[in-house]
UniProtKB/TrEMBL annotation, chain A:
It comes from Evansella vedderi. It is found in: Cell membrane. The chain crosses the membrane at residues 12-34, 54-79, 91-113, 119-139, 176-199, 219-240. The lineage of its organism: Bacteria, Bacillati, Bacillota, Bacilli, Bacillales. InterPro entries: MetI-like, MetI-like_sf. Belongs to the binding-protein-dependent transport system permease family. Its main location: membrane. Residues 56-241 form the ABC transmembrane type-1 domain. The keyword Zinc-finger does not apply. Pfam families: BPD_transp_1 (PF00528). This is Hydroxymethylpyrimidine transport system permease protein. Keywords: Cell membrane, Membrane, Transmembrane, Transmembrane helix, Transport. Gene3D superfamilies: MetI-like. It is a multi-pass membrane protein.
Amino acid sequence: MKRLKDFIAPSLLVFALIVCWEMIARFIGMAFILPSPTQVVVKLWELKNILLLVHLPATLQVILTGLFLSIVLGVGLAVWMNLSKVAEKTFYPIIISSQTIPIIAIAPIFVLWFGYTTIWAKVVVTILITFFPITVNTFDGLRSSSKELKELLLTMGARKMDIFFKLQVPSALPHFYSGLKVAVTLSVIGAAIGEWLGAQAGLGYFSRRMMTQFDGAGVFAPIVLLSIVGIVLFLLVILLEKITLKWRKTE
Amino acid sequence: MLEKLSFNVKPGEFISIVGPSGSGKSTLFKLITGLEEPSFGDILINGESYDNRLGRVGYMPQQDLLMPWRTILSNAALPLELKGVKQQDAHHQVMGLLEEFGLKGTEHKYPSDLSGGMRQRVSFLRTVLSGSNVLLLDEPFSSLDAITRLTMQEWLLDQWEKWKTTVLFITHDVDEALFLSDRIFVFTKSPVKKLEEVNVPLDRPRKLRDIHHPEVIQLKEHLLDQLRARVEL
C-alpha cells in the first residue's frame, strides 16, 4: 500500500504535464513544431511494426554491445588501477580529461572510421559516454574497503587474492551498481547520438529521418521508445542490485 | 612505542593488559599478529619463532568487523574458508558451534539484524575458529553498554574455560581486567620499557561479586593509582 502511495505524486505530476502539453499543442495547432501527446501515441501505433521490429532491435544491439564492452573495459581498468599505482597515475587523469571532450563533436570521425553500415561507430560513442561512471565508481568502490577488515583478514593468513575477492569486490559492488545506473541511462543517449550522425537503422536514425520530413509526431514516437528503453534498463539494474545485494535491504 | 619489552605467557593463561590510550597496547598486538615487525628481538608463539606470524594467532578487534554482505554463518566460517576448508565442511563446523555461542537461529541473518552483544559473539566465534590456541582480544567489549558487557564477561570466562586457550585481553576497564584475568600487565607511559605485573588473588571459577573481596579492592585501588599517575591532563 505504501509503495502505491509513493507513485501517486509523480504520476499526478506527469499526468498534469501531459494535459498541459496537449492543450498547448492543440492551441498552436502546428504538429511539425509541437505534436500533441495523442498525435504521438497515434503515430506510435501506426508505426509500431517498423519501430518495434526494425529500429528498436537495431538500437538495442548498439546499446547492449556498447554497455557490455563498457563494463568489461571499465571494470578491467578500475581493477588494474587498483592493483598498480603506476596505472592509476597514468590513466586516472586521462579518464577525467576524456570527459571534457564533446563527444558529439568527434562522433562523426568514428562514422568515417567505421562506416555507416556497421554498428561500431555507434558502439564507440556509447562506450565513450558510459565507461566513465562505471570506471570511476568501480575504482572508488574497490578503494572504499575498510582498512581494519583488511588487517583482520591478514591476521587470518589471507593472501592478496583473498583480500581482493572476499573484501574489495564485495565492497565495490554497491558502487559499481551506482555507476551502472548512470551508465544505462547514458547508453541510450550515446546510441541515439551515434545513430543520429550516421546509420541505416535505429530509433535515433528514424527520428532524424522524420525530422527531415517535418513529421513532428514521427520525431517524438521513437524518442518515447528510447526513453522507455532507458527506464527499463534502469529498472533491470535495480532488480539485479536487489537480488545480489540482499543484505542491504535491512539498512 | 615499545622498547626492550619482554614477557612470557603460560599456556592456558588469561592475561589482561591495561594502560591509558596511546600507551602501545594495540602496537603490541600488531607485533604479535605479525601485522608489524619488531626492529629488534623476537616473538615466539607456542615456543616457536616464525618468519611470517600472520595467521598464527586469533585476533579479535575492538569493533566486531563483521562483513555486512555475509550472513552470520559465512562470517564465522571466514577463517576456515581462508585455510581452504571446503565450504560445506566449514559451514557444518560453524553450525555445530552456533548453539554453544548463544547464536542459534541466527545463521542466515545478516550482521545488521543482530545486537551489539550478539555481533561480538559472532566475532569471538570467528576468532576461535581461526584454530589458534592463542587469542588476542583488543577491547572487545568497549563498545557495549555496561549491562551487556557484564554478561559478555561472564560468557567469555565460560568460553575460555571450555576452550582452554591462552588469552591476551586489552582493556582500560580495571574491573574487567580483575574479574577476567590471572595476571594483569600495566603499561607505563610510552615508550614502554618494563611491565608492571599484578597477580589477581582470586580462584576459579569466579563470580562477578568476587571482585568486591577486600584484597581485590585494595589491588584495584593500587592499579587505579598507578594508571592515574600516568595520565597527564
